[in-house]
Amino acid sequence: MSDRIMKEYIDYISNEKGLTSNTLEAYIRDIKQFEDYLYENNIQTIMDGNKTIIITYLMYLQKSGKATSTISRNLASIRCFYQYLLNNNFIKEDPTLNLKSPKCEKKLPNVLTKEEVDLLLSQPNLGDFKGSRDKAMLELLYATGVRVSEIISLNIEDVDLDVGYIHLKDNNGTERIIPVGTIALKSLFHYIKSYRNEEGLSYKDPIFINYSGNRLTRQGFWKIIKEYTKKSNIDKTITPHTLRHSFAVHLIENGADMKTVQEMLGHSDISTTQIYSFASNNKELREVYNKSHPRA
């Protein structure tokens, strides 16, 4: 391929495709790597590329250990280039026509076992403010599956200790009422009555605060999780979202229906929730395999 065609193509995708600088660089790099592959396979110019060689190249990338997302982007880069060549009469047919990108595998969430959850949640010391607060937060996180941003945004008015639920409202005005289990309620009750039952406390005041009396931050919450992960000696990377994942998977394992879990998690699309079913099914399949296969 001539330098002139490549330069004109780069001008085209820079000015007319509206690609970001990173994507632009990736597209150019992908084409040049494809060109190198063609040359190594005795195909002198990219103009002579065909569907078979493109499929072979994608298989080569897969065997080289490239991620599915990387392979998909390579195909997008190659398709964009051949469409440019076709539209400018450099070639008569688009060899990428009807070629489909490989489906990206859904990454299963990192989930704790019930025993690991018990171990993690048993770490805080209930004899002081910090331990009582941390215990209440961790129990509430696992009991409801809420996001970190939601739990630190809770005010006194958002929790009903008598009925046993929390009330959430997002920036779009969508509201969720989520039930809270007895263990989490007990921890919340102890924390609020022992350390937040101050004179003049308003219903608009935050539930979870730091030593300065200010609302706890996301960074502060992450440090708390990191601290108790280290104390528990659990050999997994645990983030606040790990407890949200564990909440969902454990509910499904115990028979909760997908729609209910979707509502509690606040997912707008149930397909987002279905990943937890995959994680649950994989665990069940592994357990059956381990019990049944003679060489498991």
TrEMBL record:
Residues spanning the membrane: none
Residues of the Tyr recombinase domain: 107-290
A Pfam cross-reference name: Phage_int_SAM_1
Full protein name: Tyrosine recombinase XerC
Chief location: cytoplasm
Organism listed in the record: Tissierella simiarum
Domain Core-binding (CB): 1-86
Signal peptide residue numbers: none
Similarity-based family: Belongs to the 'phage' integrase family. XerD subfamily.
Catalytic residues identified in the record: 147, 241, 244, 267, 276
CDD domains assigned: INT_XerDC_C
Assigned keywords, A-Z: Cell cycle, Cell division, Chromosome partition, Cytoplasm, DNA integration, DNA recombination, DNA-binding
Subunit organization: Forms a cyclic heterotetrameric complex composed of two molecules of XerC and two molecules of XerD.
Purpose of the protein: Site-specific tyrosine recombinase, which acts by catalyzing the cutting and rejoining of the recombining DNA molecules. The XerC-XerD complex is essential to convert dimers of the bacterial chromosome into monomers to permit their segregation at cell division. It also contributes to the segregational stability of plasmids.
Subcellular localization: Cytoplasm
Keyword Iron-sulfur: no
